Amino acid sequence: MAQQCLYIVLLPFLAFLVQVSIGKKLPRHGDFVPVLAIFGSFLLAMPIFMELVSKGEVHDTLRFTWMSMPGAEAAGINKSFQIVIGTLVNNLTAIMLGMVTLCAFLIHLFSTGYMHGEDRYHLFFAYIALFSAGMLGLVVSDNLFTFFIFWEVMGVCSYSLIGFYYKKPSANAASIKAFMTTRIGDTCFLLGIAGLFYVFGTTNFLELYKLIPNPEYHNVTLLGMPAYAFIGFMLMMATIGKSAQLPLHIWLPDAMEGPTPVSALIHAATMVAAGVFLLIRMFPLLQAAEVVLPVVAYVGGITAFFAATIALVQVDIKKVLAYSTISQLGYMVLGVGVGAFAPGFMHLVTHACFKACLFLASGSVIHSVHTQDMREMGGLKSKMPVTFATMLIATLAISGVPGFSGFVSKDRILGGVLAYSMENPAHFILPILGFATAGLTAFYMFRLMFLTFFGHARDEHKHHHAHEQPLPMIIPLIVLAGLSFAIVFAGPTGIESIDHIMPTKWFDVALEGAQHEMGIVEHGNPEIHHHAHEQALIISLIVAFTGIFLSAITYLKRIINPDLVKKLTGPLHYILFNKYFFDEFYIGVLIKKVFLSFNRFLAAFDDMVVDRIFVDGWKDITMAIKAVIAKFDDLIVDRVFVDGPGHLAAVGGWTIRQLQTGKVQQYLIITISMLALALYFVR
Amino acid sequence: MSCILTLMTFIPLVGMITILALPKNNDNLVRWTASVFTAIPLALAVWLYMNFDTANPGLQFVQQVDWIKAYNIQYYVGIDGLSVPMVLLTALLSFLCVVASWGIDKGVKGYYAMFLFLETGMIGVFCALDFFLFFVYWEIMLLPMYFLIGIWGGKNKVYAAIKFFLYTLFGSVLMLLVMLAMYIYSEPHTFNLIELAKMHAFVGKELVLFGWAIPMDKLFWVGLFIGFAIKVPIWPFHTWLPWAHVEAPTAVSVILAGVLLKMGTYGILRMNYSILPDATMWASNFMMILGVINVIYGACCAMAQKDLKKLVAYSSVSHMGYVIMGMASFTTAGVNGAVLQMFNHGTSTAMMFLLVGVLYDRAHHRWIVKPDGSRGFGGIASTVPVYTGYMVIALFASLGLPGLSGFISEALVFLGAFSNPRFQVYVVIGSIGIVLGAGYLLWMFMRVFLGPLNEEYANLEDMTWREKFTLIPLAILVIVLGVYPMPVLNLMSSTIAQLLTLFNKV
Questions:
Q1: B483 at the A interface (CB within 8 A)?
Q2: First vs last Cα of chain B: how many Å apart?
Q3: Number of domain units in chain B
Q4: Which of A55, A338, B81, B447 has a CA between 20 and 30 Å from the CA of residue B343?
Q5: Residue numbers of A between 408 and 447 with CB closer than 8 Å to B
């Protein structure tokens, strides 16, 4: 199985090579190559996934030495250094493999329709193939070093694809912003890896799981703080960058400049979730570090809430989904932070399916009406029935309606959060943020649905031209909508007390196995947990339906006039619409005012001070000395001692002047004669 | 084949003499002759690579002949793991640069003669094991470099050439003084670097200068270090570099950045590290700080540049900072990473300079933003897609994208330096350079290649076969070593392990 993983990664990578080198000359610009390659990966991944479902557990590894350097004989810090890499197939890998290959394949398929006729069509497929290889590589990595490598490969694909319409300055700005923002996190990630090498000498997951509980390592310090905490915070920063959490979330909404399938694949289903996947892979360390997890929880909770509030007022359909993604990623991070590790992972998987579906459906709408502004849509329900139906299913899922996948995972996260705050009452704010976000999510998602598909057409012309999409774009929508039902992951409703009659428990079994493998111990009182989950169920149902209801009376029935609300909450709306002014602060103030000015100052300093004064200054000093000597020569030596010895001195002055001719040959001759002279004296 | 190093060193010199003897006005004959006389050392370098025993940490292909007996000066050459990557790089870049210089049509004979002379000096420096011989080669290199910049350079060529020459000469004088002092205070008097390293003759002694007693090894260390630091260049001795790079013709910039800068770090490893290990330990914090300054200062300055070539020049300052950081870490990963970075920076920056040269040949300027504030290029990705493809490889290699060579060496430097508890803070500060590096390169890429097309450059010609020929080998190296760096790491790692035994007291 571990061997198989190599092929799963290599297939899309080979497709990338084919596309880059000869893609343009192939029929259909070679789009079938990546589609078939990723389908091949999917077929290879399926047996692994099915084995997990049927047996409840998979495990296989493959390792080989990538780099090794012998060290000095004596020990100390100069011990030999090696990096062993390989693949790891365990329960988490298998689930991720299934999810990623399926989503990637469907989105490749969708792209053949969506991107049809675009300039650089073959390169688009090259990039998403490389991206898929990167994501799959990350999933099968058995160590953080290759994990990081693939993480960066994805980053650069994301950069290229956000800037795919490279003639658009806004797309270029967005791509560079995405790369740079995530790069901050990536740098921290590298420091975290360096920390792991320093403490454990390895980044292999399985080895780390064994070493982490060892108290000997627990007491190591790094930069004056416990090593575990340092590494944990660095990895958390990596997640904040990649999964677009506060305060590095600013790149993800702009990333919507890329083609919509890219948003679906990279910026919803896979890459941004990789950040959460990192936290899940390294959960034992975060748990052992103790101080990290609460911070993670707050980052997630605050992000979830703030992004949801921004999503309330956006008018660009993709921007709403982007902020929704940030918010949902916040949920996952929150879940991991409160120790609800399995629900967090589950939300990662369910969210990938329904959010990919939402993005593809929105792509279908955009492709049809040629606008992203929801104010120009409306009434598309009858024109695009399949898109509407699938998007509705996904919306029900994300809003947390029982029977759909999002309900199961979100409810469990919220249960975990509630239990956490019951045990630690100081953190009472976390469940409030969590439940508030659930309500907001239901509200803005249904607002999106109502504005897009219901009511009357606000732009007759665009509405008139709207049409349903061809099959390659419809099939992915249907499949992904199918995966948005609760029954795929848990029982038919997702409510545990009902579903125990007819359980489909594969996910829970797999995650229990994973937790066991990682040595995660469940803290806390099971009774409190049980109690919390029951309460959470009720509250989350109430807030979800309240959200939907409010949305319906505002945007469907228009009992509440949204424009009036907007007027009444003027300043608040203004702040939300402008996304709390993060961009203005980061780019306008920090980068343009502070950072670039500093660079310009430094470059000027380098030129004017270091170079002109400290270096060229020597020339002036030499010239001055020369002038003095010349004057001395002229006034004193020549005038005063005109005769006899004066003549000799004049020759001396002449000699010195000859030194300043700027002829290099002479300098060289002088150097060499100095050398000869010195040698003579030495002897 | 113990004379292989001598052959590699002097075949270019034979080429130079041949070229001078060739008839005038037959430029193509000169070009082909030069290619042949640089291709032979390259072929020998390949043979050297095949036959180099990677398990042996010591010297190989040694040749030792008395030269000036009275002063115990020998013609003593040989290579070990530190020098072999540099020799390979020099041979490769010299050959590619001869091909890349095909377009030069002013004083072709003189240009190629100087170029071949330069190659002799460069290979000589990396092979020499006698300080005197080393110094001779070191000085020999200066002369052709001076003329190559001063005659075939750009607008301010004379200023740049003089600056380069005097600055380096200043370093040479310091080196010369240390060399003589080492000779005097070693017992028996010797210039032999290997002997000097074995002797530990300068520890604990003092030298009285102007009435001050100064620890001898530290004084020597500082003298050598400044001499080499100018070459690297280490801040604040770096200001000759933007001038020289910007004014030099393309191929000479490639050699400057690809080979000459590495002589500084190579010299530090060969002299300061091997001969004066105690003083090196004493100065390690200081070196680390300078390395971090180089990384960040270079990157910040690069960010503000409007001239493409100047940007690449400052990026070299930044990247050489990683080499210093790795060296100063005294860890297996760090020092290996540093030497690997010397090699990798050689290939990636050579690509960058070649590519800038290609653009300059067509557009006759290199402004990212013109001095009047209007944009220099813009959107040329659509007119020159192949060129853009190569630029993407070079660019991502320099910004340290995993999968390309620069990443491996930078990562090793960081992992290594971080595993030495003394330097963890510096690593954290230095890591800002990773972010900045991506910043200036991508920002440049955006302004030059992306966005709406600047109509002035709508008819830019894409790469010719000759230009591709110079870039393909480098691109292959960048990719292959990014995926599997062991072919180069293997060469150096046992020598470095041996070198590090000197510092085990850490």
A1: no
A2: 40
A3: 2
A4: B447
A5: none
